[in-house]
Design brief:
The chain folds into 2 domains: 3-90 and 203-422, Alpha-Beta Complex (Adenylosuccinate Synthetase, Chain A, domain 3); 103-198, Adenylosuccinate Synthetase, subunit A, domain 2. It has helices spanning 16-24, 76-88, 107-120, 132-141, 147-150, 153-174, 182-196, 203-212, 246-251, 284-292, 311-321, 360-365, 391-404; strands spanning 3-8, 29-32, 41-45, 48-52, 65-68, 73-74, 96-98, 103-104, 217-220, 260-266, 269-271, 305-307, 309-310, 325-329, 339-348, 351-353, 367-374, 407-412, 420-422. It contains 13 helices and 19 strands. It has a 9-stranded mixed beta sheet, with helices on both faces. Strands 13, 15, 16 and 17 form a 4-stranded mixed beta sheet that branches. It has a two-stranded antiparallel ribbon with strand order 3-4. 33% of the residues lie in helices and 20% in strands. It is α/β, with parallel strands linked by helices and 427 residues long. It binds inosinic acid (IMP). Residues 11-13, 38-40, 125-128, 130, 132-133, 222-223, 227, 236, 238-239, 272-273 line the site of inosinic acid.
């Protein structure tokens, strides 16, 4: 298999960074295709911890090519800072390429994200406030500014001037906050342009050449299926498509090129931001999972809401993404939990639902139907083969496979690259 799409199968934060990093060893190219710096990956290599938001984690391997595809929204301030961060840590960044078709996050997108969230009050989405939604709104409204424009002073100036006219009106008159000064934004972005210029290249062409040469390509999804603009818990979603199908549009390849889709799924469930979460635990078990799993956002530091594994949502993710298998992460976090629950269905007004509902009103009122499995107390962080796991842990994994109808190919038992059980090779 040479082209693999790796996506989040829950509400994001499934531990994709670790799995991407693990698979990147075998890949020649690692590609981001949607989202922006709302994502956050923590990768642990030896004693060193790396936090990345935009650059694919494949950058930690000097010989891998890393691409930021056209479907990503790029905050150049963040990208430049991330390049400097990596260079300071001695990581070479020459193998990064950025699509000229990717859209830019502008300072006013971040401001709009903030004031629009505040205006929503109780109904806020709980966004990361990184300007993601407003940037994708401009893209869809055909007023976005792209990387290719950043490299053309006149074009950039023209577009910025036009946009500021509207945006400043909106900010001042509707939201009653300060607007943005053309010169300031222009000068700041022209500085970024010079730093980023050497990295800009037609990433779709690079991919096609790689496909012809039968290179191994890993598409790295950000966020998760239930945050997908179409398939997630709308409107409590992000503004892009974290699902596998989006890899084609967000990178400029056809669907016939993809060989495999793998969904990263945590051994329990977490969610940040607002929105329904049927298996949420507001008790001491939820607190225990948060502490043991270090469930605090990489991007915003917010504590994540924690709950039991949701088999209905996982089966939905398997269907929407056409998953070949799951990479199950953080199984070690469940160690010591006496009785583990798995949600196998939802009860809604006396009826049993087996499929994930479209209506948020329905989802909010769903009661999870749980199955109970005995837990295990043994330390599993040293397990490297499935048979090293205690019987109860093996049973838990097998039950997840049965409920979701999807094999579990990889199992994470700790934060390090080496703490991974491989049941089936991905590449
Ligand atoms: P936005 O993407 O900043 O617009 O936020 C929309 C929703 O997606 C909020 O609930 C965020 O908490 C959530 N979100 C965005 N990025 C991530 C992520 O990388 N992990 C988990 N949740 C995310």
């Amino acid at each position: 298999m040479s082209v693999v799409v790796l996506i989040g199968a829950q509400w994001g934060d499934e531990g994709k960074g670790k799995i991407t990093d693990f698979l990147a060893r075998q890949a020649d190219i690692v590609v981001r295709y949607q989202g922006g710096n709302n994502a956050g990956h923590t990768v642990v290599v030896g004693e060193e911890e790396y936090r990345l938001h935009l650059i694919p984690s494949g950058i930690l391997y000097p010989e891998k090519m890393c691409l930021i595809g056209n479907g990503v929204v790029i905050d150049p301030a963040v990208l430049v800072a991330e390049l400097e961060y990596l260079q300071k840590k001695g990581i070479a960044t020459d193998n990064l390429r950025i699509s000229p078709r990717a859209h830019l996050i502008m300072p006013y997108h971040k401001k709009l994200d903030e004031v629009q969230e505040e205006k929503k009050g109780q109904n806020k989405i709980g966004t990361t406030r990184r300007g993601i939604g407003p940037a994708y709104m401009d893209k869809a409204a055909r007023t976005g500014i792209r990387v290719v424009d950043l490299l053309d002073r006149d074009e950039f100036a023209r577009k910025l001037e036009n946009n500021l006219e509207d945006v400043n009106f909106l900010l001042k008159r509707v939201y009653e906050v300060d607007g943005f000064d053309f010169e300031e934004v222009f000068n700041e972005y022209m500085r970024y342009a010079e730093i980023l210029r050497p990295y800009v290249a037609d990433t779709s062409v690079i991919l096609h050449e790689a496909l012809e040469a039968e290179k191994k390509i890993l598409f790295e999804g950000a966020q998760g299926t239930l945050l997908d603009l179409d398939h997630g818990t709308y409107p409590y979603v992000t503004s892009s498509h974290p699902t596998a199908g989006a890899a084609c549009i967000g990178a400029g390849i056809g669907p016939t090129e993809i060989d495999k889709a793998v969904g990263v799924i945590k051994a329990y469930t977490t969610r940040v931001g607002e929105g329904p979460f049927p298996t949420e635990l507001k008790d001491e078990i939820g607190q225990h999972l948060r502490e043991m799993g270090r469930e605090y956002g990489t991007t915003t530091g917010r504590p994540r809401r924690c709950g039991w594994f949701d088999g209905v949502a996982a089966r939905y993710a398997a269907r929407i993404n056409g998953l070949d298998s799951f990479a199950l992460t953080k199984l070690d976090v469940l160690t010591g939990v006496e009785t583990i629950k798995i949600c196998v269905g939802y009860r809604f007004q006396g009826e049993v639902l087996r499929e994930f509902p479209a209506s948020l009103k329905v989802l909010t009122q769903c009661e999870p139907i749980y199955e109970e499995l005995p837990g295990w107390a043994e330390d599993i962080s040293g397990a490297r083969d499935f048979s090293d796991l205690p019987q109860a842990a093996q049973n838990y994994v097998r039950r997840i496979e049965e409920i979701t109808g999807t094999r579990v190919s990889l199992i994470g038992v700790g934060t390090r690259r080496s703490q991974t059980i491989v049941r089936e090779e991905i590449f």
